[in-house]
Amino acid sequence: MSAEEDALRCPRCNSRVHSRAPHSLARTWALLLTAMMLYVPANMLPMMETTYLGETTTDTIISGVILFIDEGDWLVAGIIFGASIIIPILKMVSLLYLLISVHQGSAVRVRQRTQLYRITELVGRWSMVDVFVVGLLTALVHMGQISNIHPGMGVMAFAGVVVLTMLAAISFDSRLIWDYSNDR
Amino acid sequence: MLIACHECDALQRISDLPEGASARCVDCAALLYRNPAGDLNRPLALMLAAFMFYLLGNSFPLLTLDISGLVRDSTLSGAAFALYQADMLVLAVLLLVTAVLAPGMIMLGSLYVLTALHFGLALPGRRPMLTALSHLRTWEMMDVFVLGVLVAMVKLAADAETLVGAGLYALIVSVGLALSARSYIDFIDLWRTLEKQRL
Fold first, then answer.
1. This prediction's pTM
2. Which residue of B8, B69, B89, B167 could cross-link B60, Cys pair, CB 3.0 to 4.6 Å?
3. Taking a C-beta distance cutoff of 8 angstroms, is the pair B16, B94 a contact?
């Protein structure tokens, strides 16, 4: 099973055919590790700078969640916490687990691992919520002297994390999980 | 039909399914194929409506903000432009791609292919278009964007008066219609229809 196969093409849609995606593991590792590294500045650097009547306050992901809780908006706090903290961490840990399990040639829980992969792929895009929130607030709150919102570098880093984890999930060939299953 | 599961590579046969039924992989339960009810009439109509509301959603403001008398509103592209002006070109492009371009191209592309298949027209580039649609789907995030607008609304409601704009309503309807249209579409089904036409 060579990774550098001469391009076989599907007779119907002309896409390239591979027995397994070439360099799937290497690419997934690269994307995942970069995403994990970016997640630190994403949380530490500010997402937004709010200027209200001359005073500037900065907000990170977590401080933003706490602000929502303080105002009693538990639902929104939950959404942001879920989308910006829980989902990215679960995605990264899941991909890490899947990668390691394939490297170890694990033959157990094959079905569950495939389901984990499926959920990881489906759920990832929802992490973009906070990026859109910042974008919208930047566009709307432009009130000269009274109030202004400016995006911080944290949002760039976070967008990077979301995109990279999405690409990592795509580049991971889930069929590799089954290559070590005892039933095949 | 002989098929190799795209998630676990299990080779299996799918017999002809009744309308509305779906086939799942014997090993990993991935959705392999669905036989959508009815002809392509329904998804075509729904997708067309979704596209029209998408155009409306992009033309009208999403939210109007009133802070102590100062009023400001923003459309979708306005938000992307604001990010660009705030020196966040990458984010502006990301927003534009995931919330405007990808959804728009998917809708137009779907309309193109569905029209060709439903009316039996030999429109050029059907195959590359159908392939492209599968890839574009990853980057379509209009529904996530709508949620983002709602969250932004709540965040602003504490300090200002917010008004939901026509654009937001239109986008919500568009998301709903597109979702509905997709439930009547199955890619393998479309490919088989395309092959059967042999135009």
1. 0.92
2. B167
3. no
